[in-house]
Amino acid sequence: MKVTANDQAHEVEDGATVGDFIRGIGLDPRYVVVERNGEVVRRTEADATELAGGDRLIVVRAVAGGADPFPSLSAAGERRQARLRDARLYVVTDARRDRGDLEELLTRMTEASVDIVQLRDKTATEDELRAAADVFARVCDRTGALFVLNDFPGLAVQVGADGVHVGQEDVHPDHARTVVGPDLLIGRSTHSRAQIDAAADEDVDYFAVGPIHETPTKQGRPAIGLEPVRYATRHAAHPWFAIGGLSPQTVGEVLEAGARRIVVVRAVTQAEDPASVCWSLRRAVAPFHDE
């Protein structure tokens, strides 16, 4: 059957969806705004919206709501996307200024199968963050792990991070994308069904769901339990991670609820043997690596 996109005729198979069509013309549905017969197709609905003969589409490759054209991903951007797709274990740490062992910790974690490490330090000065970021970048360049900076898109670009993570009270992902461009990853914190749904239409590459359990790293943030994990399992449009009080003792319940990727903080960063904890967590998630 025939459809028209941007005034050009295209032949598509019966049963093809909007998502199939977008990928068929070499675009990524995350970075495309589509109007079908005068109505916008939400990104989360692209793979469920079947085309019909005679449909007229307007396709805009865009960021931040369609304001600026996006170039293709560079080789570095493609590598980050591939690494994210395979990622299962993600650890967040501060700059370890009180211990002075940041490089040792990062090396032990990334050599013990941690896929992503995030620098999150709410009390550090910009100079202290830059110094810590240099260590993150050096270790991750050597081990192949992804380095994500919390909160600051501009600084993430300057220090050579692989991505930036923003919370619900931080800059909006669309603004972050205008700063970091297409090649860096953008992560998003979510704490409810509504925020999980919203993340599907935001310009993010992954999101985190939590905190599953109460944790001092998120003071004032109540635990959300496992129900949002089950919801994300059914509805997520991006890779996502469960977070909040996870450890080798508690990870089983989130995996049973459907999570296949996890973020860990204190169970690793406060452990006497961080590498051993990382390997234990990796063994827990390993059976789900291909899901």
List keywords for this structure.
single chain, 291 residues, alpha/beta, Ubiquitin-like (UB roll), TIM Barrel, 2 domains, 8-stranded parallel β-barrel, 5-stranded mixed β-sheet, 34% helix
Structure commentary:
The chain is an alpha/beta fold. The protein has two domains: about 1-60, Beta-grasp domain (Ubiquitin-like (UB roll)); about 75-290, Aldolase class I (TIM Barrel). Helices cover about 35% and strands about 20% of the residues. The protein contains eleven helices and 13 strands. It has helices at about 20-25, 75-85, 100-110, 125-145, 155-160, 175-180, 195-200, 225-235, 250-255, 265-270, 275-285; strands at about 1-5, 10, 30-35, 40, 55-60, 90-95, 115-120, 145-150, 165, 185-190, 205-210, 240-245, 260-265. It has an eight-stranded parallel beta barrel, surrounded by seven helices. The protein has a five-stranded mixed sheet with strand order 2-1-5-3-4, with no helix packed on it. The longest helix is centred in the middle third of the chain and has 18 residues, at about 125-145. It is globular and about 65 Å long. It starts with a strand and ends in a 6-residue tail after the last helix.
